[in-house]
Amino acid sequence: MADNLDKVLMYIVDHQLMQSDSRESQIEATASRDVEAEIEGVAQDRQADAERLAPYFAEGLRQAMANGGKLIVKDTDPRDNNIADAFARFLVTPNLATSESHEIGEGHYQYTFNVDLAKLSEIARQAGVTLQGA
User: Fold this and answer.
1) CA dist., res. 91 & res. 52, Å (int)
2) Is the distance from CB of 77 to CB of 111 less than 8 angstroms?
3) Radius of gyration of the chain (CA)
4) 3-class SS string, the chain
């Protein structure tokens, strides 16, 4: 994953999501749980998800940046569904975007994401990336 947006994604996974997961696991820790192993397992899962969804994250983010942070996708299209998955996991969860959905057919939805470009630009800066040039 050499793309600058891949660097931003991995920074979000490592510094936004994993710190939160680690805190939650430590708060919920009991004597019978191996918290370190649990945190490592979550980290590996998140890394694998990020690698799988990275192309969709980058594609969706480029579209959103070109539209002032707004992106609309439908889960009826496999590409759009993967973009929605990436945005929900890596932007909505750490509060870097909001999302709304509405049903467009039996069991299918349209998702509207609004990316907080100011927050995301700061995260990108911390990752050593200029978001506008990515």
Assistant:
1) 16
2) no
3) 16
4) CCCHHHHHHHHHHHHHHHHHHHHHHHHCCCCCCCHHHHHHHHHHHHHHHHHHHHHHHHHHHHHHHHCCCEEEEECCCHHHHHHHHHHHHHHHCCCCEEEEEEEEECCEEEEEEEECHHHHHHHHHHCCCCHHHC
- Both tokens assigned to 101: 């959905």
pTM summary value = 0.81
| Cβ within 8 Å of residue 73, ≥6 positions away | 60, 80, 81, 83, 84, 110, 111, 113
Report which residue type is found at 76: T
Q: Give the span between the Cα atoms of 81 and 58, in whole angstroms.
A: 14
Cα–Cα distances (Å) from 63 to 3, 68, 99, 112, in that order, read 16, 9, 15, 12
**pLDDT tens digits for the chain (134 residues)?**
348 999 999 999 988 775 544 445 444 555 555 556 666 666 677 788 899 999 999 999 999 999 999 999 999 999 999 999 999 999 999 999 999 999 999 899 999 999 999 999 999 999 999 987 76
